[in-house]
Write a structure and sequence with these properties.
Two copies of one chain form a homodimer. The first copy, chain A, is α/β, with parallel strands linked by helices. Chain A folds into four domains: about 100 residues, Roll (Ubiquitin-like (UB roll)); about 140 residues, 2-Layer Sandwich (Nucleotidyltransferase, domain 5); about 160 residues, 2-Layer Sandwich (Nucleotidyltransferase, domain 5); about 100 residues, no CATH class. The first copy, chain A, is built from 18 helices and 28 strands. In chain A, the strands form seven sheets. Chain A has a six-stranded mixed beta sheet with strand order 13-12-11-14-16-15, with helices on both faces. A six-stranded mixed beta sheet of chain A has the order 27-26-17-18-19-28. In chain A, α5 packs across α6, α10 packs across α15 and α12 crosses α17. The longest helix of chain A has 24 residues. The radius of gyration of chain A is 27 Å and the shape is globular. The N and C termini of chain A lie far apart (about 65 Å). The interface between A and B is large, with 47 and 47 residues.
């Protein structure tokens, strides 16, 4: 590394600054002595994984100190062997002088082809009148230039023309828009395309359309919007053509905030660090902007032509995206700053599109039922059905909604990160190298598995874990309580360093050259997660006097929902034992809802109505939840009959 | 100067950077070789007078090059003697290497006591219902904190309380306001003062109040606003108490833009330089902020408690204040970007008050009849009178309005800077050392004068020039055409270097040790200025079929109007020869109108109505104006009878 030469090998007494070099990037930071390694990395723009939110709990921010002096806080996640090799936890170690660090390369961020839902398959779930009353309207005007005899000012001249063409009486024009008005009109020789945001315009009402763009010449042939799903793990964007109503293209990537914590709680903890909230906001904006750049490049469009954005995300993601402090979401009684976010300009958030474009976030119900769920209820059609319907979105949290067009009730249960590969020894995200399907032979207990991208396995993702749990249960590798049957005649069951374990892949087969195993502790985490979801479903039904068997259809949303095997999920008791035909996988209902609300003015109002009318059941205040949870800590349940009562 | 030691005396070949030192400030700038001296000064934050807007026409940006090499463009304002002494025009000279400059100290900016209208004298011209329906309302709330059983989000909780207290249904909350909401509510233990902007709130209407402040504890005992008059030359601010309706205090200062040009045309020219518009905007914002700091200090208030601002200024001043390009105001057909400026947040403009405070600029009629005039029509009561009334505001431009409560017609004539001391050899602003009153003896033609602050005279200000012209005319020093009677038996009349002149003050009496004179060329400039104003008045009357004699009252506004002597102004034909009792001096009608609109919601609507209903007469498109102007180029007029026809 060239940069290494800049380091002086002598200690520099009396100097409170230190140089930090990050290998293999060669990035250099100049920091105060006493700075946390993680903060130095953030300053240098080097991404160091920190899934637990810099709490020293996960041990994943391990870096190698190749040169220099640091002070480590003792931590169970760092063994003395690690330490003697020079490893340190970035979130628990401070810099004492000039140092050279080696940052391990991250899990390769590779998209599963299935995440990229083919754009042409995406269709609006409803018939909307977006062609008759488009929210974003482009209009080409040839305006008579001013003269001494007709010296109306530029703004009123433009309004006069719009009144003539559209019958509108007034126009909202922000100061930044106004600043370029006179020059653009003249440079374009009074032939311009206006971009109007009619979202708030009620005919005869008092909220006038908003001028969000003024372009030279006739630019009415393109008019684009963006629907964004900000997941805790992944961000998905749909590029939408307002003229055809079609999704032009989609793109997705990991939410760059993942480096600051894997779940919302870790993100909230991270947001309380100095500059933490701003950093998280910058990361998600950068993720979205990178996706916009990618889409613009692939589709030969100008990002400036994107004139409206609709965003769905859970309550914490929405808060952070808007720069709102999520602190109180985590503290009892779990109160968000708001549930219906205000209109915001893209420029105020730093989105690299038309800076005057409106950004609307889907409304939330509460701290743990967010815009992703209201978006799902919208796009799933649950809010319009006569049939008793259950909508489930399982991720780190399990959110569920029960209802019909007349009423909606919802709750959220903290499933923990197990179904997303967290809290499980060899769990991982659904990325290349993850085992996603497993079968176990009932004869010899040998597994057969499938790996994403067909490479050597590196770990097991959520759908693989559900499969594994179900297969171990039905083949008798584990009992109802999740205990591994140590007496089984297979070398795959044994006592490992971390207690009893089942070996899924031998060292020789794996990417790391180590066995991939599942331990009894892992199994307990998974059982607790499924018990939480099932208990939530039970309590939700009980609360309205219904039985799970009364539910006429079960709609499964969320990216995770796309990959789970309903048969296996029923076997472990994650989903209720109902006829398969009642289950429907809807794909990314959060992104689909954002797309729906982007294109249809009425649906924007509908989703606010959905959020307002949904009753939120707080499980932590519900005694029956603990009972249901305890009885669900077995596979599939303590009492099968009881579960469908 | 310490900084001088940093200059290397050797030329530095191959180096395209140069160090510029400004004496007597000791400020240092590091600039590219080839930079204009004026730009270097701007970079260094050194104010160099440039009244003509850096066009090389006024010669007032003269600086002394004490050391180093510069390249001067030849310019009639710089004599070869000047040049040999080392002088250069900052706007016409580029830097060739390291230089040391001496910047002459500026005219001492000293306020005339009379500008500081005693705050207690200022009273609203109208009875307003501001106590019953205040625009800015503070309200102390004790909000029940959230619980698991009552988990409404923070924003809706606040709205719920406001609905209970004020019956309002919704609230506009900007993203920056929302960002601090949750933390403030909790840190204040749910006991807060809300600041609401009800300006746009129509009971039963659809525009909800705007949340502009949230303060811990009960802060309802103070509630302040600011009325600002941005003049081309001076800025005046009134600190207004919304609780008593009184003006608490006033302050004024020269508009710091004066260093970039004395009149609006020079400012517009300056605005077209690189960063010119931003620089001008920063200067006026700084002027206002300095006055706010002064008022806050004197009155022991927090500037953050200022919750609304009302601004009156001519169209160019308003454009520049808002950062709008004034370019097309100057180019035929003289079109401003807008006449009714949008609501802007104080924070967006950089005003050092509550950043969420609304800033409203008074509406204009056109490019040359601005918010200062509509503000004057408002505060003068012209828009409510039955009597035929003429409102005149004379400065660099003369703006006049004729009308009653039923109709209003207006025009503007370019009087030139003569009445403000510009374009006159020994003219100066109304600052310390200016001759402001003059009498001439009809026996021996000896003058008696009064000087602002009773010091040795340095020049003659506008009111002094009007006096001088009138006295010279009535005593026969000049004839009807403005020619000096060279045959008079007095040494004060003589042929000077610049043609015939009258000596007002001998060298021994003056501050500079040079004679203060008025030349025939100066007199011609003054006559042209008064002719333009008078011709404007005539055309205005003619256009509605009225005679000047029909006018029932003449209201004189503007700071300049306060000091002119009506008798003398009639003698020279600047004002029509009507009975003195018809004339009324109203003081700073522009600031008074801003104050009126700040305190009274109805008056804000009234002034927009005034601007909309005023008919603008474009004099440059009017043939009769040239005729009137030509016949007014005599004193008092060509035909006294005709003038009152």
């Amino acid at each position: 590394m060239q940069e290494e030469k800049t380091v002086t090998k002598e200690a520099r007494p009396g100097n409170s600054k230190a140089i930090v070099i990050f290998k293999p990037f060669g990035t250099v930071a100049n920091v105060e002595v006493g700075t946390l390694l993680l903060d130095a990395a953030q300053l240098a723009g080097v991404e160091v994984n920190s899934p637990c939110g810099a709490q020293g709990r996960c041990g994943r921010c391990k870096v190698l100190v190749e040169y220099g002096e640091v002070a480590r806080r003792s931590n169970p996640k760092l063994s003395s062997a690690d330490e003697s090799q020079g490893y340190a936890l970035a979130c628990q170690t401070v810099i004492k002088g000039d140092v050279v660090l080696v940052v391990p390369t991250k899990e390769e961020i590779q998209r599963r082809p299935a995440i990229e839902t083919a754009a042409e398959k995406i269709a609006l779930p409803f018939v909307c009148d977006w062609r008759r009353e488009p929210a974003i309207q482009k209009l080409y005007l040839e305006i008579p230039p001013p003269s001494l005899a007709d010296n109306t000012n530029d703004l009123d001249r433009l309004k006069r023309e719009l009144a003539k063409r559209l019958g509108i009486k007034d126009l909202v024009v922000s100061l930044p828009m106004l600043r370029g008005l006179s020059r653009t009109l003249r440079e374009a020789d009074w032939r311009v395309t206006v971009v109007l945001d009619m979202r708030n315009w009620l005919p005869g009402g008092s909220i006038p359309p908003r001028l969000i763009g003024l372009l030279p010449d006739d630019e009415t042939s393109t008019n684009l919007g963006l629907a964004v799903d900000i997941g805790t793990t992944s961000v998905v964007v749909y590029l939408v053509d307002f003229i055809t109503g079609k999704v032009v293209d989609t793109a997705s990537a990991y939410n760059a905030q993942v480096s600051c914590g894997e779940d919302v709680i870790s993100r909230i903890i991270y947001s309380q660090r100095r500059d933490g909230l701003n950093h998280l906001q910058r990361l998600v904006i950068k993720t979205i902007n990178d996706l916009i750049t990618e889409l613009a490049g692939h589709n030969h469009i100008h990002a400036d032509d994107i004139n409206e954005v609709s965003v769905a995300g859970n309550t914490t993601m929405t808060h952070v995206f808007l720069g709102l402090d999520p602190k109180y979401i985590r503290e009892e009684p779990y109160i968000p700053t708001m549930t219906v976010p205000p209109r915001v300009s893209a420029g105020d958030l730093g989105l690299a599109i038309n800076p005057n474009a409106s950004v609307y976030c889907m409304p939330a119900v509460g701290s743990y039922v967010g815009g992703d769920i209201t978006s799902g209820v919208l796009s799933s059609g649950l809010f319009q059905t006569d049939r008793l319907t259950l909508f489930i979105d399982v991720g780190t949290n399990g959110e569920m909604v029960l209802g019909t067009k007349d009423w909606l009730i919802t709750c959220a249960c903290s499933a923990g990160p197990a179904f997303e590969g967290g809290g499980v020894r060899h769990g991982m995200r659904a990325a290349a190298g993850a085992i996603e399907d497993i079968w176990i032979s009932p004869q010899n207990y040998e597994p057969t598995y499938r790996v994403i991208n067909n490479i050597s396995p590196a770990g097991i993702c959520g759908s693989g874990l559900i499969d594994l749990l179900a297969e171990m249960f039905v083949t008798g590798v584990i009992d109802k309580a999740g205990k591994i049957r140590r007496e089984l005649p297979t070398p795959r069951v044994r006592m490992g360093d971390h207690g009893p374990e089942y070996i899924v892949a031998w060292a020789a087969e794996t990417a790391s050259g180590n066995n991939i195993v599942i331990t009894e502790a892992d199994i307990n985490n998974l059982i607790r997660a499924k018990a939480a979801v099932y208990a939530g479903l039970s309590v939700l039904c009980n609360s309205v006097g219904a039985k799970l068997a009364d539910v006429e259809q079960i709609l499964i949303g969320g990216a995770f929902g796309q990959y789970i095997n309903v048969e296996k999920a029923i076997q472990i008791g994650l989903l209720p034992d109902l006829p398969w035909e009642k289950f429907h996988y809807l794909g990314n209902t959060s992104a689909l809802g954002a797309y729906t609300a982007l294109l249809c003015k009425d649906m924007r109002a509908a989703v606010v109505d959905i959020a307002r009318k949904m009753t939120y059941l707080e499980l932590s205040a519900d005694n029956s939840f603990m009972n249901e949870y305890t009885s669900a800590l077995f596979m599939p349940h303590t009492n099968l009959e009881a579960s469908l009562r």
